[in-house]
Amino acid sequence: MKTALRSACVAVLMLLLATTASPAMAKGPAEVAVAGPGVDRTLSHFTNNGQDVDLGSLSEAARIFDIYSNQRPQPAPDVAAEALGARYVLTWDLGEEDVVQHAYPFAEGGAWVHLVPGQEIFGEPVADGWSSAPALTEQLVGLGAVDKAKGSTGPTGSAEQPQPALATADPEATPGAPSPDESDEGTSYDVVVPAAVVVTVLLATALLIARRRSLSR
Question: Is the pLDDT confidence value at 195 over 60?
Answer without folding.
Answer: no
